[in-house]
Design a protein that fits this description.
- The chain has a single domain, classed as Alpha/alpha barrel (Glycosyltransferase).
- It has 13 helices and nine strands.
- Strands 5-6-7 form a three-stranded antiparallel β-sheet, with no helix packed on it.
- Strand 3 and strand 4 form a beta hairpin.
- Helix 7 runs antiparallel to helix 8.
- It is globular.
- Glycine binds next to loops.
Length: 394
C-alpha cells in the first residue's frame, strides 16, 4: 500500500481563464449531440441493433447485446436525451431495447465479468429512475446479485475478469461498476451489496493508486487476499498511467462518495484529480497514456476527458476548498470546450458518433482513433450535467 504524496495543481492559471462553455455554447453542443443520437438511432433501429463498442472510420456498425461491457451506454444516451428534453420520442426509442437486458441477465448471456454496472445502470437503472419500470429494476437487481458472485471474501474486492477464483485481480474501472451495488442496497434494503461495494472501493483506493497519485490499471492479490502487484492491460506499460484508468478513479471516487458520504475520500480524490490535470496537454484532452504528451505523435483518448469531466462535476457541489473548486470548474470548462470545438462530430455529417479521436485499446489494436460509445455517452452526460444540473444514473 503506497503512501500517496501531496500533489498540487501545477500552473493553475491555465484553468482560471474566462469560461467558454457559456449557456449558448452548451445549448448548441447539446442540440448537435441530440441530432447525432437521432442519426445513430436511424442506423440502429431496424432489429434493435446496438452500436459497436468503437466506430470504423467514425461510423458505428450494428452489434447485439450478447456480450461485452458497452451496450448500456447506447440506452444511456437515449435516456439522457429523454430526461434533458422531456420529449417522449426518446423514451419510445429506448424502451423496446430493455427486454434484451432482462433476457441477458436472466439467461446469463455475456455476463462472466464485472461490468454489470456499466451494462445495467445507464440502461435499466435509468429506466427505473425515470419511468418506474419494474422489470428494468428487477433486471438491475439480478445484475447486482450476479456481480456479488465475483466478490472475493478474503481480499474484500470484486474480481474483474476470468472465471471466479482464477485471475485474482481488480481493475480501476470497477469503481464505476460498484454504484450498482450501492443502488441495489437502497432498493432492496439488503446491506450486503453496500458492504461489498465499500470494501471493494477501499481495496481499490488503498492499492491501485501509486505514491505519485497515478494509477495502475489492474492490481493482483494473493490467494490469502493480501495485495500482490500492479500491472496493465490497456496502458503503455505496467508502470505507466493509462489515462482512461486515471479518469475511472477520478470519476469513481465521487460515485462512492455519493452513496457513502465519507469526507475522508477528499484528499485522495484531489490528488488523483490533480495528477490528471497536471498531465493534460495544451488542448486539455489526454493522450491515451500519460507517458505521452505534446509532440509525441501518439493518439488521444477523448473519452478520458469526458469521463473525468463527469467525475469532477459529480464532486464539485461537495467541495469545500473554494480555490480548488474554481480550478476544477475551469478544468471542466476547458476540457468540454476543447471536446466540443475540436473533437465533436458537429462538422462531420458522415459520422453517427458524437465524439471523435478516442482509443479503446492500443495494446489490443482495437478502436484506435475512433469514436467509442462510452466517450459519446460521457460527453453527453457532462453536457447534460452542465446544462440541466441532472446527475445521470450512477
Ligand atoms: N472499462 C473498459 C475500458 O475502459 O476500456
Amino acid at each position: 500500500m503506497a503512501e500517496v504524496k501531496q500533489v498540487n495543481v501545477e500552473n493553475p492559471e491555465r484553468f482560471l481563464r474566462e469560461k467558454k462553455m457559456t449557456k449558448e455554447v452548451l445549448e448548441a453542443a447539446f442540440q448537435d449531440a441530440c441530432k447525432k443520437v437521432e442519426q445513430l438511432y436511424e442506423d440502429m433501429k431496424d432489429g434493435l441493433a446496438f452500436p459497436s463498442h468503437a466506430s470504423k472510420d467514425n461510423v458505428y456498425e450494428r452489434d447485439n447485446n450478447d456480450d461485452g461491457w458497452s451496450q448500456g451506454f447506447w440506452l444511456g444516451l437515449l435516456w439522457l436525451c429523454y430526461e434533458a428534453t422531456g420529449e417522449e420520442k426518446y423514451r419510445e426509442m429506448a424502451e423496446p431495447y430493455l427486454e434484451s437486458f432482462y433476457s441477458r441477465i436472466k439467461e446469463k448471456r455475456g455476463v462472466a465479468h464485472h461490468d454489470m454496472g456499466f451494462v445495467f445502470m445507464p440502461s435499466c437503472v435509468a429506466a427505473y429512475k425515470l419511468t418506474g419500470n419494474e422489470e428494468a429494476k428487477e433486471a438491475a437487481v439480478l445484475a447486482a446479485e450476479h456481480l456479488m458472485t465475483r466478490y472475493h471474501e478474503k481480499g474484500g474486492y470484486i474480481q474483474a475478469w476470468g472465471a471466479v477464483g482464477e485471475q485474482l485481480r481488480l481493475i480501476v474501472d470497477c469503481m464505476n461498476n460498484i454504484p450498482l451495488l450501492y443502488w441495489a442496497s437502497e432498493v432492496t434494503g439488503d446491506s450486503k451489496y453496500y458492504d461489498a461495494a465499500l470494501s471493494h472501493a477501499k481495496a481499490t483506493m488503498a492499492n491501485i493508486v501509486r505514491e505519485d497519485a497515478s494509477t495502475y490499471h489492474t492490481f493482483y492479490f494473493n490467494e490469502d487476499g493480501s495485495p500482490s502487484h500492479g500491472s496493465t492491460a490497456q496502458g503503455a506499460s505496467d508502470d505507466s498511467c493509462w489515462s482512461r484508468g486515471q479518469s475511472w478513479i477520478v470519476s469513481g471516487i465521487p460515485l462512492t462518495y455519493k452513496y457513502v458520504k465519507d469526507d475522508s475520500v477528499f484528499p485522495l480524490f484531489e490528488k488523483v484529480t490533480n495528477y490528471f490535470l497536471n498531465h493534460l496537454p495544451e488542448d486539455y484532452v489526454p493522450f491515451w497514456d500519460f507517458n505521452f504528451t505534446d509532440g509525441s505523435g501518439e493518439k488521444r483518448d477523448s473519452s478520458s476527458a469526458a469521463i473525468a469531466a463527469c467525475g469532477i462535476l459529480e464532486m464539485l457541489p461537495h467541495m469545500k476548498d473554494e480555490k480548488l473548486k474554481a480550478i476544477y470548474e475551469g478544468a471542466v470548462d476547458e476540457m468540454m470546450y476543447s471536446l466540443y470545438e475540436n473533437y465533436s462530430t458537429k462538422d462531420v455529417p458522415e459520422s453517427n458518433g458524437l465524439l471523435l479521436h478516442a482509443v479503446y485499446s492500443i495494446p489490443h489494436g482495437i478502436g484506435v482513433d475512433e469514436c467509442n460509445i462510452w466517450g459519446c455517452y460521457y460527453y453527453m452526460e457532462a453536457l447534460v450535467r452542465m446544462l440541466k444540473g441532472t446527475k445521470a444514473y450512477w
